[in-house]
Amino acid sequence: MKKLILIIVIFWGSYSLLSAQEDIKQQVKELTNTVDSLENITKPGKSKFLLRGYAHAGLEITDNESTFEGGSFNPIFLYKQSDRLLFESELEFELEDRQLSIGLEYANFSYLLTKSVTLRLGKMLLPFGIFVDRMHPAWINKFSSKPLGVGHGGILPTSDIGVELSGGAYLGNSKINYSAYVINGPRLNEGDDEPEEAGQLHFDNFPDNNNNKMIGGRLGFLPLSNSSLELGFSGMYGKVGSRGTEYSDIGAFLYAIDLSYVQSLSFMSSVLSVKAQYSGVNVDQASYIDTEDTLNTGATYTFNNTSTTYFVEGALRPALLNNNFFRNLEFAVRYSELDTPEGSMWDSKLNQWELGLNYWLDWRTVFKFTYRITQGEAGHDEGGESPIGNAFLFHWAIGF
Amino acid sequence: MKKLILVNGLAALLVLLAITFFSNCATSNVAMNKSGAQLWGENCVRCHNTPSPETFSDVEWDVAVMHMRVRANLTDEEAKKITDFLKTAN
Prior knowledge:
CATH architecture of the largest domain in chain B: Orthogonal Bundle
Shape of chain A: elongated
Number of helices of chain A: 3
Structural class of chain B: mainly alpha
Number of helices of chain B: 5
Oligomer: heterodimer
Order of helices and strands of chain A: HEEEEEHEEEEEEEEEEEHEEEE
CATH topology of chain A: Porin
Radius of gyration of chain A: 30 Å
Distance between the termini of chain B: 54 Å
Mean pLDDT of chain B: 83
Number of strands of chain B: 0
């Protein structure tokens, strides 16, 4: 009887063990299948999409008014189709003049031809100087506004449509980078639509107003092995007058020299940033209809169509301090000048000081307090508002 | 005069393109021995604050670094080292 009970117990125990093993095997199999399916869900494909961008808004107090500014919202779409092909695009949603304006800042694709040569086609930010190409996003620009002459409505190009070859390489311990492009180029305001801006270059030239294409480029040289210093030389040349008009042979030569120096200063527990850019715009001399001379219909006037603008800015952030509050502070100062042609209806000689105090919430979110002093003479005011005077600007900006 | 400037400018750019093509031969040991972390620290801060590696996932860094390679004219080796570092440190 005891033997029978023992056999039954052993049999039952063995059966239970075998059943448990089968259960465990089944569970392991199910878990393996689950992990495999999760891997398939999260496994990156060759096509990779990333949404980035930035936004800013703020309060602006001038001599005559105070207003909250809607700023802008700029989503940036990045799409990596392969290890060689990248598409980038930035839209700008901006509140201005009681309306929402939508702009296409750039939309282009880049193809890595070789390790040192990238082909870019489409609408692109022009590597002309350093501000537009590298410093214009609100979370990168250390001030609540742009330097004189730069940006939309300025005398310098921002973006254009065309083809570019670019790249970078080491030369010993130094580095160089280059960009060479062919674009539509700006169009000359010949005085038909906005006679007060006759002789100005406009950079929204699509479709092109002539068959000539503008050729340009930038060469950057980084002589120090830690890449802290960069010197840049930019230039572009092309005809800007409309085909079939008396201005068809009018050409323009634009140039810029820029400097960037960013260095950690351990003795001050700070990071120092110095940026500067000097730019010139030379347009061939031409005669324009004088709309202010009402007595002599068809009378013309001319002027030496040369403009220059420059800025120098410095920023110091004690980022290496241990104190969390002080390490997020940043002190900044910028001086800029704009000199447009004497004798034109848009003649101006302006200079501007900007003093900034910034507080960084993290590496891409900042509160910017800027006090701006603009002096000089402005012949043609943008939008009827004089740029001359003092202003306090408080902006908050976020990059994402 | 302007044509002369243009021709000279284009010639200079062509020379630079040639230099760039053959420049890999001229890369120094200092440049070759830089780590991804060092390149990340040196290059990002030239334009903006240095981003935390934790900002993006591995896949997102692939796209973000390629974007910066094109915009900041990073070399192929720099981009690869920086990507590897960010993926390791995020």
